[in-house]
Amino acid sequence: MLVEFQQALADLVASPDFCRQVRLSPPLLHERYVLSEREHERLVKIVNHKAMALNCMLYRANRLAPLAMNLHEFCTLLGPRLGPLLSEYAVLYPNTNVHFYLECDRFCKFVLTKLSDGYELEREARVVLEKEHSRIQLGLMASYTAL
User: Fewer CB in a 10 Å sphere around the end CB: N or C, the chain?
Assistant: First the structure.
C-alpha cells in the first residue's frame, strides 16, 4: 500500500484541483487508491494543511522552469494567457519530464495542437513559437547525439 500512498501524494502535489476535490470529499482517495486507514488519514491531513498550497505552487514552478528558460520569448508574449495554458497542460500531462527539451517540446506540441483546434494567437506569438520550438528540437536532437 505504500506505493499507492506515494502515488496519491504525488498526484495531490501535482494537482491543486485534486486537492480541492479531496478536501470536499475525502473518500475520493479510497476510490482511486488502495490505502490503509492510517495512510488515508495522513493524506487528508496533508491536503488540508495550510502549506499544501505552497507545495503545489513549488511543483508548478518547477514545471514552469524549463519553459521559462527555453521558451522565454513565447512565454513573455503569452502574458496572462500563460497561466491557463499551463493549467490545461498540467491536467493533460500530469507527469513532468526532467529532460528540459522533452518537456518544452511536449508543451510546444500541446500549443500547436490547440492552435489547430482553433485556439487563437497573434501572428507574432506564432512566429516566436515556431522559432523557439525549432531551437528546442535542434537541442533535443543534439542531446541524443552527444552521447
Answer: C
Quick count: other Cβ atoms within 10 Å of Cβ 38? 10
Residue 71 has a pLDDT of 97
Ramachandran angles phi, psi of 59, nearest 5°? -60, -45
Shared-domain flag, residues 37 and 92: no
d(CA 97, CA 140) in angstroms, rounded, equals 13
Read off the pTM.
Answer: 0.78
Q: Which three cell numbers stand for residue 47?
A: 491536503
Give the three-class secondary structure for 50: coil
Task: Confirm if 74 and 47 have CB atoms less than 8 A apart.
Answer: no
- Residue whose C-alpha cell is 505504500: 2
What's the pLDDT tens digit per position in 5-37? Answer: 999 999 999 888 899 999 999 999 999 999 999
Same domain, 90 and 128: yes
- Count of other CB atoms within 10 angstroms of residue 26: 15
Q: Counting beta carbons within 10 angstroms of the beta carbon of residue 115, is it exposed (0 to 12), middle (13 to 18) or buried (19 or more)? A: middle
Count of structural domains, the chain: 2
Low-confidence ranges of the chain (pLDDT < 50): none
